Amino acid sequence: MKEDFAVTCTDLKKHYGPRIALDRLTLEIPSGRIVGVLGPNGSGKSTLFRAMMGLTHPEAGTIRIMGAPPGWKTNANIAYLPDRARWYPGHTVQHAIQWGDALLPHFDRNRATQLAQEMQLDLNQKIDGMSRGTEARLMFILCLARQVPLMILDEPFSGIDLISREQIIAALISWVSEQDTTVILSTHEVSDAESLFDYIVFLRNGQIVQQGDADELRRAHGSIRDIMRNWYYGEGHRP
After folding, report:
1. From CA 186, how far away is CA 36, in angstroms rounded?
2. Averaged over 71-89, what is the pLDDT?
3. What per-residue confidence (pLDDT) applies to 83?
4. For residues 152 and 186, what is the distance between their CA atoms, to the nearest angstrom?
5. Residue 202 has pLDDT above 90, yes or no
6. What residues pair up with 171 in beta bridges, in sequence order?
7. pLDDT at 33 exceeding the cut of 70
8. pLDDT of residue 88
9. Interatomic CA distance for residues 138 and 237, integer angstroms
10. Phi then psi for 179, rounded to 5 degrees?
11. Which of 18-32, 98-112, 138-152, 161-175 has the lowest mean pLDDT?
């Protein structure tokens, strides 16, 4: 039976020294939608994603991923794109695809190769020395090649060129139209990703300051970019 919520978090609390990363955060992420988790640096987005993956452990509260606690079983059903990956020296795009085929559950090697061609990546190109945009496209391909119910993308557009952003967004739109999946996406490039969002969560200082259906928020307050500017960038009023 399909869960109504892909992810549920209850009273999550996490500190890094004196800094509060998550402050009694409670959240339900609806299944089958593209969910934008937005906020400035230090608002808790990456910590929340790492907690969903079981890579960091909150000091209090609970997380359920499709009804189960985070761990290797739930991670088998999550395509996770961190803000930056680590690669072995000398590895090529082809090596990365072979690695995905060998180690990532539900990985489609043929689809990964097709996506590499569509995104104009040379299979023999070495990863070491790639531009930020080229590496971002490769990491994204490894996510899109997996047939999984949940994808978590942490700043997939950060520091990359316009063409790479457009290619990633087009590939994501095409992929979501073919899959029954949930996508959780954080980005500072809100204008570029605006059309993707079905549901929005705004974070600040480890707490949710606003959330809801993206279309309803737009009708009430304008664009998602305008709402974000009002919350975070000193416009003098709040939605």
Report:
1. 6
2. 84
3. 67
4. 8
5. yes
6. none
7. yes
8. 77
9. 40
10. -120, 155
11. 161-175
CA distance 232 to 227: 9
Average pLDDT of the residues in 12-30: 94
**Residue 86 contacts by C-beta under 8 Å, 6 or more apart in sequence?**
none
User: How many alpha carbons fall within 13 Å on the CB side of residue 195?
Assistant: 6
Q: Tokens at residue 28, please? A: 């339900």
Alpha-carbon gap, residue 150 to 138, rounded angstroms: 19
Paired tokens of 219:
């009708």
Residue 3: pLDDT band (50, 70, 90) is very low
Q: Is the dihedral of CA 142, 166, 6, 12 positive or negative?
A: positive
- Give the CA diameter of the chain: 52
* Residue 47: both structure tokens together: 């910590």
Tokens describing residue 45: 């987005």
At 4, list the tokens: 């109504």
Per-residue confidence (pLDDT) for residue 155, from 0 to 100:
87
- The structure tokens listed for 117 are 């061609």
DSSP for 156-178 reads TTTT--HHHHHHHHHHHHHHHHH
Contacts of 52 (CB under 8 A, 6+ apart): 7, 63, 65, 70, 78, 152, 184
Helix (H, G, I), strand (E, B) or coil at 79: strand
Q: Which of 10-19, 125-134, 151-160, 171-180 has the lowest mean pLDDT?
A: 171-180
Q: Which two tokens stand for residue 81?
A: 């794109």
